[in-house]
Amino acid sequence: xxxxxxxxxxxxxxxYWYVPVVILLIFSTYKFKSxxxxxxxxxxxxxxxxxxxxQGRFQVNVRATGVLKPVYIRWVSAQxxxxxxxxxxxxxxxxxxGQILMQLSNPxxxxxxxxxxxxxxxxxxENYAAYIALESQLLDLENSVVEADYSYQSSKLKLDAETQLxxxxxxxxxxxxxxxxxxxxxxxxxxxxxxxxxxxxxxxSLLASKTAQQARLGLVENxxxxxxxxxxxxxxxxxxxGVVQQVSLALGEQVQVGGSVALIADQRSLFxxxxxxENKVSDIALGQTVVVDTRSNKIFxxxxxxxxxxxxxxxxxxxxxxxxxxxxxxxxLTVDGLIEVSNIADALYVKRPVFAPRYSDxxxxxxxxxxxxxxxxxxxxxxxxxxxxxxxxxxxxxxxIIISDTSSWQEHQExxxx
Length: 418
Hints:
The protein is α+β, with helices and mostly antiparallel strands and 418 residues long. The protein has 3 domains: 40-71 and 269-418, Elongation Factor Tu (Ef-tu), domain 3; 73-106 and 234-265, CATH 2.40.50.100; 107-232, Helix Hairpins. The chain is 34% helix and 33% strand. The chain contains 4 helices and 21 strands. The chain has helices spanning 12-15, 18-36, 107-167, 175-232, and strands spanning 42-43, 50-52, 54-70, 73-77, 82-87, 94-95, 100-105, 235-237, 242-247, 254-255, 260-265, 270-277, 289-293, 298-306, 314-321, 334-351, 361-367, 373-384, 388-393, 400-402, 414-417. The strands form 4 sheets. A 6-stranded antiparallel beta barrel has the order 3-12-15-14-13-16. A 4-stranded antiparallel β-sheet has the order 4-11-9-6, with no helix packed on it. The radius of gyration is 54 Å and the shape is elongated. It starts with 11 loop residues before the first helix and ends with a strand.
């Protein structure tokens, strides 16, 4: 027998239980949306660093480190070999040109000098004796010329007298004697002329002999002078005014020809050698102003040379110092340099954000007026200094941007600041 069961109706709350849940979700979503706005990421305020866009004079500087170097520097070297007998100066001493730095000893060189001196004196005596002998021969020849002249004149007088008698048809002079007189005059004249030629030849010979003797004497004298100069060079002297930077030899040391003795620099004339990172050299040009900091003073200068080569990622920049050198300026002093690349009178700029390279388009987060949100903004960047960068477009004066690291949420267009 079937028993008819009474059908119990389902409560509405069970039938439509999901409706309150949906309503709650919609309400929560609405509240969250109203709270978050269009932000898709939340960042903590205490983790952010911000900066405000400013307008005004914008200086682009490149910072570098380096040392001061002397413009005029000389290595003093030994001209002769020897052993250091005495040292007169040490590093740091101020010396004048010609001042003795060290005294070397070389006994062999002194013996060679004495030998060369005696050879020179002997050669001078030999030359003098040769000159006297040649001049004596010349004097004899000149006397012969005088005697020949006398004989010629005597024969000519006799011939002239006989000619007058012959013209007067005086029989005192025979024709034979007259012809003999004519022949004698010709002979005496020829002899006189030949003696004159001998004198001229002797004078030329004497001059040539003197020249040859003088040349041979010059060789001996040059050798003597060379050794004398070498002995004088045992006293090593400063080649310029300045301060001794380094002394390479100690007492008792042996030095060879050309060996380094001392380094002398002029401390009154210095320049700066700065090392600049290779990626910053493109902005540097000749003539740019540089401020060199010695830690206690500042010196002004300008760029005079840019090394074309890169060494270990650095490029050397030479700076000519134009202002007066302070007392603490000295060679090899470590200094900092600030090179002024450009100076823009009216520009937009801001503190340099992280990962914001110069001359690039970057996505920077600009804070809203209530500073509760930050929206990603496309910004065109220009030149950069040590800690600032120029804004070409995308921001205006007074805009506040996030300059700390935003790489972990760069894909979000808007973030909420909590």
